[in-house]
Amino acid sequence: MRGSRSGFTLIELLIVIGIIGVLATLAVVNVSSSREKARIAKAAAYASQMKRAAGDMAVALWDMDDCIGSTVVDRSGFGNMASVANTTWITNTPAEQGCALSFDGTSSYVSAGTSPTLNVANSEFSVCAWFRTAGTGASEIFSNSPAANGGFALMVYMGHLRSQVWYSGNGNTLDGVTTVNDDKWHYGCHVVEPTRTVLIVDGRVDASATLTGTKVRAASSNMFIGARAGVSSFFSGSIDDVSVYTKALTLVNATKSVATGL
After folding, report:
1. Cα separation, 239 vs 218, whole angstroms
2. Beta bridge pairs of residue 71
3. pLDDT surpassing 80 at residue 10
4. Residue among 209, 132, 134 at smallest CA distance from 170
5. Separation of alpha carbons 181 and 172, rounded Å
6. Is 206 in a helix, a strand, or coil?
7. Which of 94, 118, 124, 242 has a 20 to 30 A CA-CA distance from 33?
């Protein structure tokens, strides 16, 4: 009579190891997915908080939920309708509902026109947007009369957010530290306070610096989304929910628990 078998064969051991490996991979994927959802939820909570706390100071709210056509409707009540050029409506959004716009990195942009209500740089202001990109070069999220006194811009540059606001010939260039060209949705804000310029990424202050120069309005307003003046630094990726406020969001009381300063 054969003795009872003890232990595993090599094949059985390999099968067990393989199963453990698959389970471990699934666990890591689930943890990573949960963390990503939590990050998006936190950024979305911040964006929603801003609209509640500073909504009456919004001069443009392009939520991009039009989903069709060549016009992006402004929900702020100021009538700053925007026109799309070579963009594509998509349903991959940070909220997993509504729409966003896809930009090809070579010719896509949205022109928001020359309304004086968007010429806000003579005082404190904030411009925010959801964006997603894997690009590595200069990729403009929005700009208004860049390089002119009173002009401002927000872009992804070398994998990080970069903001600029021009006063007295000084661009006040500010570079963030968080990597944002990971092909994931991020919520970025360019905030100009009375004496500081601030970058916010996903509801947290990413960088700040003291402003240089005298605040002025630009000679004319020329707002673009996804490109610099519609001719350069074309954005490669997706943009959603762009808003402009005549208030520094970092100074709104409701936000201080979320966007803590450096």
Report:
1. 25
2. 83
3. no
4. 209
5. 22
6. strand
7. 242
- Segment 179-220, tens digit of pLDDT: 999 999 999 999 999 999 999 999 999 999 999 999 999 988
Query: What are the CA-CA distances from residue 258 to residues 30, 204, 254 (Å)?
Result: 26, 6, 8
Q: What is the DSSP letter of 249?
A: G
DSSP 3-state assignment of 20?
A: helix
How many angstroms separate the Cα of 198 from the Cα of each of 73, 167, 191, 194, 204?
28, 15, 5, 11, 10
Cα separation of 242 and 61, whole Å?
Answer: 6
Give the chain's domains with CATH numbers. 35-255 (2.60.120.200)
Question: Which amino acid does the sequence have at 90?
Answer: I
For residue 229, what are its two tokens? 């003046």
Q: Cite the beta strand spans of 136-185 per DSSP E.
A: 139-144, 152-157, 160-165, 174-175
Cβ neighbors of 165 (< 8 A, separation 6 or more) are 121, 151, 152, 153, 171, 172, 190, 192, 197, 211
Q: Tell me: the pLDDT tens digits for 71-126?
A: 999 999 999 999 999 999 999 999 999 999 999 999 999 999 899 999 999 999 99
